[in-house]
Task: inverse folding
């Protein structure tokens, strides 16, 4: 046999034996096992399903595909506000604290053993200081003097009942304080919100939307304050929280056309209520006041305006009343919203503003929280004043 061929054969066999031993040697003790396919990020077919890298994410974003950022917060859910029923009662303690001086002074004076002329003058001054108004204060004092004379001796409970009945009579127990938000045959109810900037007008429009949504109504908001882009942004924030769409246009657009479009959207959506937020018109600017009247006239070409709510800051006193008179001349106001009522001891403004304008207070703001706007309840209001005096 050729020894050369024999040597080659032996060499090849040796290589095969060594190589096979290497390939089939057992796993080293302590080495971690291979993870299952699903833990390695492989699907049933062995396809890798690892998360996309940043470059892939950028491409997907450029293509309009939503890519969740690591740790990004989830989209905010639509809130469900509490219903309007009983709101003022729930906020009564806050109102009582603000009216503590007013109620305490009146009850203290009326409970005195002897009510002479000086005491009655002090009672009248207390009422005027609380923004009740000179005419209303004089009438309240006259009525109380008559009742005290008839009653003779007075227990604390009798004094409280006397004052309660008189304040209720001045505020008015038979006025329609309903905010007319029910849809009708002509389409959704339309509520215009007017007032000077700084009174909480746009905030009131947003809070009113929350009140209505809490009562199960559907709402469309119209951002007709086109002089301030921030107002439309603010209204959009309020609307997004409760799922109420907002109709808005670029800054400087015609407010009347925005209001008209909002009403049209409300009709198309079969909404219950359309709330139109108007510009915070300076009461000294005649042209702007005329434009406010134009917004109302344009909307009325489409449907009726069911309520025009004038927002007043309760802390502004006589200046707020001057504003109210001018607005009443420009547009037919049907109701008052008193904001920041928890921030003043002058709760008598409710009596005075109603007397001046001949329209009822329908809503009151009692704080900065989203649900601090409440339907005005005359009994709860008077009880809060007297509670503050006890």
Result:
């Amino acid at each position: 046999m050729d020894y050369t061929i024999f040597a080659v054969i032996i060499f090849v066999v040796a290589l095969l034996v060594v190589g096979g031993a290497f390939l089939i040697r057992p796993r080293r003790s302590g080495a971690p096992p291979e993870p299952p396919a699903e833990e390695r990020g492989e699907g049933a077919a062995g396809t890798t399903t690892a998360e996309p890298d940043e470059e892939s994410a950028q491409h997907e974003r450029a293509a309009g595909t939503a890519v969740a950022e690591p740790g990004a917060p989830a989209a905010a859910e639509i809130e469900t506000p509490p219903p309007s029923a009983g709101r003022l009662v729930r906020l009564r303690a806050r109102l009582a604290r603000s009216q503590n001086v007013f109620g305490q002074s009146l009850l203290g004076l009326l409970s005195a053993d002897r009510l002479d002329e000086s005491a009655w003058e002090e009672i009248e001054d207390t009422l005027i200081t609380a923004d009740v108004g000179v005419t209303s204060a004089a009438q309240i004092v006259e009525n109380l003097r008559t009742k005290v004379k008839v009653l003779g001796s007075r227990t604390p409970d009798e004094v409280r009942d006397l004052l309660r009945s008189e304040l209720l009579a001045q505020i008015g127990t038979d006025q329609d304080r309903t905010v007319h938000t029910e849809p009708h045959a002509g389409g959704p109810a339309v509520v215009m919100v007017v007032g000077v900037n700084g009174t909480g007008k746009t905030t009131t429009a947003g809070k009113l939307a929350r009140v209505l949504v809490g009562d199960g109504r559907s709402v469309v908001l119209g951002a007709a304050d086109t002089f301030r882009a921030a107002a439309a942004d603010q209204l959009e924030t309020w609307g997004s929280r409760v799922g109420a769409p907002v109709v808005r246009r670029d800054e400087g657009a015609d407010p009347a056309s925005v209001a008209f479009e909002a009403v049209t959207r409300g009709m198309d959506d079969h909404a219950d209520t359309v709330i139109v937020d108007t510009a915070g018109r300076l009461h000294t600017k005649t042209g702007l006041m005329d434009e406010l009247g134009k917004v109302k006239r344009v909307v009325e070409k489409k449907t009726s305006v069911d309520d025009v709510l004038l927002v007043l800051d309760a802390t502004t006193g006589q200046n707020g009343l001057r504003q109210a008179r001018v607005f009443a001349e420009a547009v037919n106001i049907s109701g008052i919203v008193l904001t920041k009522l928890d921030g003043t001891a002058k709760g008598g403004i409710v009596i005075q503003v109603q007397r001046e304008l001949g329209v009822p207070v329908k809503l009151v703001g009692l704080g900065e929280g989203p649900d601090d706007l409440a339907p005005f309840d005359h009994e709860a209001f008077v009880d809060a004043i007297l509670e503050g005096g006890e």
Remarks:
- Residues 68 and 74 are 9 Å apart (CA to CA).
- The radius of gyration is 36 Å.
